[in-house]
Write a sequence for this structure.
């Protein structure tokens, strides 16, 4: 773990050495990451995930420039390219903020379920409750 300062907030974050790509692939092997939007950051994020072996789908509004660009980039309608609402429903992990233009460097993904469980029991139900996404909003 490394300590980093994000807009004046000290956080402990998991480093690449602690959580390499191989571990991310294993953690996401049964998941489908839905990237909603294909604007400024969406293409880079979606293609990076796909190129690194993560199952990913893209959600955009059909018929627009983003839909056409996604198809040119190799996303296939009905297989890996869906209307926004359908992609959100199909995805088990939804990446939305970056696609809206929130700078990626302002976002941090960190796995804390093991270290900060909501439910300390060692049951499958407890593990399910501890797998979660939390958003912490801070002021600059």
């Amino acid at each position: 773990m490394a300590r980093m300062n994000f807009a004046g907030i000290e956080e402990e974050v998991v480093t690449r050495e602690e959580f390499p790509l191989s571990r991310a692939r294993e953690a996401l092997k049964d998941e489908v990451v839905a990237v909603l939007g294909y604007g400024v950051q969406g293409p880079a994020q979606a293609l990076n995930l796909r190129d690194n072996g993560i199952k990913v789908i893209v959600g955009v509004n059909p018929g627009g420039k983003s839909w056409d660009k996604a198809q040119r980039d190799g996303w296939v309608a009905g297989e890996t390219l869906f209307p926004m609402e359908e992609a959100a429903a199909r995805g088990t992990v939804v990446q939305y903020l970056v696609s809206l233009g929130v700078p990626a460097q302002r976002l941090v993904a960190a796995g804390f379920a093991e270290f900060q469980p909501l439910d300390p029991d060692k049951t499958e139900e407890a593990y399910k409750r501890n797998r979660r996404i939390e958003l912490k909003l801070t002021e600059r």
Observations:
- Residues 1-27+110-140 form one domain.
- The radius of gyration is 17 Å.
- The CA atoms of residues 59 and 67 lie 9 Å apart.
- Helices lie at 21-27, 42-51, 65-72, 84-90, 124-130.
